[in-house]
Amino acid sequence: MNNIEIINFATTPSLVSRYMRELRDVKIQGDPMRFRTNLLRIGEIMAYEISKRLNYTQESVQTPLGKAMCHEISDKIVLATILRAGLPFHNGFLSYFDNAENAFVSAYRRYKEKGDQFDVLVEYMASPSIEGKTLILVDPMLATGSSMELGYRALLKKGTPARLHVASAIASRQAIEYLCDTLPQGMTTIWTGAIDPEINSHSYIVPGLGDAGDLAFGEKDDA
Questions:
Q1: First and final C-alpha spacing in the chain
Q2: How does pLDDT run across 116-132, given as a tens digit for each residue?
Q3: Which DSSP helix (H) or strand (E) runs through 119?
Q4: Spatial separation of the C-alpha atoms in residues 50 and 44, rounded to whole Å
């Protein structure tokens, strides 16, 4: 029995709904700064919601007039991102988890000579130890789920986290099902702005929004 929690922000209209609409709208997508800002905003909102699941301790704080008891996050957080599309999304989480350690994984598709078949390759990783920590792994697009899963496997070289949060702006139903089968049970929560019904023959999410990396940073030369 699957024991991974799925949080789909599309089921309850909120500010995320507005930013998701702008991410998808071809009339608005032409502004890279606005596209990056919307990813950042969604990241901030998701970071706030994830913060409700963390552990806290109480601390006494001296004010000019006395002492106040305040809550402080006790979890050690590592914020990890799949390059390159994940960078503005990552910055949204980092705005709120400003004391988090950071990790970066380069996972990309390498297409075969003919057709739409591809392999997902991980060529670079920079990460602190994640042993016993809360790992928040973010990537705006979960099409097949392969890049996210391989990114997580690569990070396991740095230890085993106590808790895993996976966050995306848009996921396909196929990716959700794949990650529910491959990510650790009982310690994983998947957060997404929307779950779209399918991927096409090129493994892009439909209706999706296109290539998040290109929209955020410009087209790349795949030659």
A1: 44
A2: 555 556 677 899 999 99
A3: strand 118-126
A4: 10
